[in-house]
């Protein structure tokens, strides 16, 4: 059996969770994370981080990183000695977003989920959120909902 090779690029530090994001999620997504965290013996943060990594870089790169020990599926939080805070955050101009449709479909986002991740992954997600005209939290909530609950549910909200 042939092993998976390391993907091209600089992946240093991708197995260190040195930043966090709080995402407000709806109850169906929280229920999903609760069930899967028991089944796979991973925290909700692990499940969210892994799903977001696959969303950004694809399953093949993800599996190659895991195979080469550059990404750990389950891990403990590693914080840098110097914690940096951004008071401004990322500002985006929100277009006419289908938030009411999302809330009608999934309910209010009443469950908070703190996701620890590598700084580079957070920066990648911020760039994608800006391109989509969404806040980072909104972008991640939609990406996780699509990944864990299915694209047909999210795509139906666009029509």
Summarize this, please?
With 159 residues, the protein is mainly alpha-helical. It is built from seven helices and two strands. The protein has one domain.
Description:
The chain is built from seven helices and two strands; from the N terminus they run βααααβααα. The relative contact order is 0.24. The longest helix has 14 residues, at 27-40. With 159 residues, the protein is mainly α. Helix 1 (27-40) crosses helix 2, helix 2 (44-57) crosses helix 6 and helix 5 (119-132) packs across helix 6 (136-149). Helices cover 51% and strands 9% of the residues. The protein has helices spanning 27-40, 44-57, 59-67, 99-106, 119-132, 136-149, 151-158, and strands at 19-25, 111-117. It has one domain. The chain has a two-stranded antiparallel sheet with strand order 1-2.
Low-confidence stretches: 78-96
| Percent of sequence in beta strands | 5-15%
The profile of the biggest β sheet is:
2 strands, antiparallel
User: Number of folding domains?
Assistant: 1
- How many beta-strand runs? 2
Oligomer: single chain
What is the mean pLDDT? 81
What's the helical proportion of residues?
A: 40-55%
What is the string of helix and strand elements? EHHHHEHHH
Please state the CA-atom Rg, rounded to the nearest Å.
16 Å
Between the first and last Cα atoms, what is the distance in angstroms? 45 Å
Sheet with most strands: strand arrangement = 1-2
Total helical elements = 7
| Outline type | globular
List the helices and strands and how they pair.
Elements: E1 19-25, H1 27-40, H2 44-57, H3 59-67, H4 99-106, E2 111-117, H5 119-132, H6 136-149, H7 151-158
Antiparallel strand pairs: 1-2
Helix pairs in contact: 1-2, 1-6, 2-3, 2-6, 5-6, 6-7
């Amino acid at each position: 059996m042939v092993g998976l090779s390391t993907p091209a690029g600089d992946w240093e530090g991708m197995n260190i969770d040195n930043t966090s994001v709080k995402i407000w999620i709806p109850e169906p997504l929280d229920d999903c994370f609760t069930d899967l965290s028991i089944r796979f013996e991973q925290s909700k943060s692990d499940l969210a981080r892994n799903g977001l990594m696959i969303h950004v870089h694809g399953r093949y790169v993800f599996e190659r990183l895991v195979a080469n020990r550059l990404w750990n599926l389950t891990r403990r939080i590693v914080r840098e000695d110097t914690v940096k805070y951004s008071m401004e955050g990322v500002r985006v101009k929100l277009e006419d977003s289908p938030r009411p449709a999302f809330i009608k479909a999934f309910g209010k986002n009443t469950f908070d989920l703190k996701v620890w991740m590598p700084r580079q992954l957070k920066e990648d997600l911020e760039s994608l959120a800006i391109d989509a005209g969404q806040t980072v939290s909104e972008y991640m909530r939609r990406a996780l909902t699509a990944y864990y609950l299915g694209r047909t549910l999210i795509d139906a909200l666009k029509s």
